[in-house]
Amino acid sequence: MIQAMIGRKLAMTQYFDETGVVHPVTVVETGPNVVTQIRTAEKDGYEAVQLGFGLLKKPNKPETGHRAASGFMSAHLREVKADNLGDFAVGQVIKADAFAEGELVDVIGTSKGRGFQGGVKRHGFSGGPKTHGQSDRLRAPGSIGSSATPGRVFKGMKMAGHMGHERVTVQNLRVMKVDPERNLLLIQGSVPGPNKGLVTIQRAIKGQRKK
User: Fold this and answer.
1) Which DSSP category does 143 fall into?
2) Per the record, a Pfam family (predicted)?
């Protein structure tokens, strides 16, 4: 059994279950994933399955050679865990039905980039007082340290800076519906990243422990 797959976030929509309750869901194109390589403990020192997703339009010679055995020019490659490597072969196609309806998954993606932002938006600072004659301190960060001791700014101080475009994992999301014909998963809740962003869907670790 494969433990994770590569997918692409498409959009958010609504899904009505059997009881008529509406759920916010994210539509994720999950596959087809192609097995491009199998890592073994004897050869590589660890065990994993390398999956490919998407189509690489202009591959160079090294990229073409690496993907030649699978017969598919995959644009994105990821190594994921699997229960039994003997169940997989190079060139094998894995579709969305690798996941089941009702299963809990963790979704890993890159959050939306927000550029350079101030402390109020980036960290939720309250800003300065709205009265007492101040006119330009409304969204200021305030003091970042005393002058004499320590006479410097501590590392890790929350300040203005680059926001977003980070690896984010959202845990224990439920698979509401599986469409193997179109390789779509309807995952309850929101998924990190913009539309058409690359995501990794893996079986929930904490959810499995809880069961």
Assistant:
1) -
2) Ribosomal_L3
